[in-house]
TrEMBL record:
Key word Transmembrane present: yes
Signal peptide: none
Taxonomic superkingdom: Bacteria
InterPro entries linked: EamA_dom, EmrE-like
Keywords, in A-Z order: Membrane, Transmembrane, Transmembrane helix
Keyword Membrane: yes
Organism: Roseomonas marmotae
Name of this chain's protein: DMT family transporter
Location of the EamA domain: 6-138, 151-287
Length: 299
């Protein structure tokens, strides 16, 4: 029980860190290009992760048995990050987070059709309910009776698609590569690609917005540190508690995002966002809830 409670604590801390990272990212992209912010974040992330693995294990196992799969996974993660951070430049944090939570539902769909995993009726029902919540959060005029939503609402939806593919590739790689190898490759391919566009988008810190260069650099470096810390805590959480127990806690991130959106940016979520978030959370909980099979096994 002590290990389980520790795992829950690590998981909750990771989710708070992710919201903190998104909040900081939204502040930065108000003045600096999205590719620049994502590039620095992942550069720092890779450095922090490599340093931690080296200190803890004494080696850096870079070589992969499936380099092309690692490449595709890395590109999907960078694409997901670009889309989500780009959405933060236009949308309230709570709205972008709510729509982005379509990712776990889409992962179930891809797992069923791509990995041929067996998905029971309860999970299919949860996916259906969750996708209804996503539709509500997208604010279509035929539901809200209002004007067309901002075009940027499609960006977190694209983020959800890219991230769900990233998760499926991560599952495939779990049977092929050392987990340390996969952690080291996370974001590496995307950083190489983003490095090619930096000469065209780079804006010197301190030249835009009210903050001096030192503060901007601190924020950019903090993004990488928070990313590494958050993902590291998730790894620690899943080594101490069951995935079926931790998965429902993911939806507390919606609550923290709404609080951050209101406190930091003064953007309070409206009834449509709250309704969509509640429906998505209900669907997600139904997907994550383990079903009991004969003999007491959980599936």
């Amino acid at each position: 029980m002590s290990a389980t409670l520790t795992g829950i604590a690590f998981n909750l801390c990771a989710l708070v860190i992710f919201v903190t990272m998104d909040t900081l990212g939204k502040l930065l992209v108000a003045h600096y290009p999205v590719p620049q912010v994502v590039f620095v974040r992942f550069c720092c992330h890779i450095l922090f992760v490599a340093l931690a693995i080296r200190l803890l294990t004494g080696s850096l196992p870079w070589r992969s048995r499936a380099p092309w799969l690692q490449l595709g996974r890395g590109l999907c993660l960078i694409l997901a990050s670009l889309l989500f951070v780009g959405a933060l430049a236009y949308l309230p944090l709570a709205d972008a987070t709510t729509v982005g939570f379509a990712a776990p539902l889409l992962t179930v769909l891809l797992a069923a059709f791509w990995l041929r995993e067996k998905v029971g009726w309860r999970r299919w029902a949860g996916v259906g309910i969750g996708l209804v919540g996503v539709l509500v959060a997208l604010r279509p005029p035929f539901l809200t009776g209002g004007p067309l939503p901002h075009w940027a609402i499609l960006l977190p939806l694209g983020n959800a698609v890219a991230y769900s593919i990233y998760q499926i590739m991560t599952r495939r790689l779990a049977a092929l590569d050392d987990p340390r190898t996969t952690m080291l490759h996370t974001g590496l391919a995307g950083v190489v690609v983003l490095a090619l566009v930096q000469p065209f988008v780079w804006q010197a810190p301190g030249t835009a917005g009210p903050l001096p260069a030192a503060w901007v650099w601190t924020g950019l470096l903090a993004l990488g540190a928070l990313s590494a810390a958050g993902h590291g805590m998730l790894v620690l959480a899943f080594t101490r508690a069951q995935a079926s127990l931790l998965a429902p806690l993911t939806y507390t991130q919606l609550l923290w995002a709404m609080i951050a959106s209101a406190v930091v940016f003064g953007q309070r979520p409206d009834g449509i966002t709250l309704s969509g978030a509640a429906i998505i959370a209900c669907g997600g909980l139904l997907v994550a809830w383990p079903s009991r099979r004969k003999g007491g096994s959980t599936g």
